[in-house]
Amino acid sequence: MTTTQAPPLIAPKDDPRAAAGIRRAKAMCGLGGFAIAGLSAYMHGDVFFTAGERALGGGIAGYLLGWGVALAVWRRILQAETHQALELLRSRSTPDETPET
Known about the structure:
Blueprint: H1 16-43, H2 48-93
């Protein structure tokens, strides 16, 4: 019985592109949630203080949602890059089966 060993994967926090992308997504989603929740609360008649509370809640929710989505996306990207690199190494290590003429 042969067992296939899973390739070692890089954690998103160890990859500079992934870490920057996750930070950027968290920031943009947090600001977007803050703005959307605050403006919608204020435009629907809430007083400024209550609209600010809702904006903070929306910002926190957006931040957490952005973090979760960005982390899932970058894990898949890093997994695909790892599999592609391993496939490239395997194709280079095996000789071609073309007949010589």
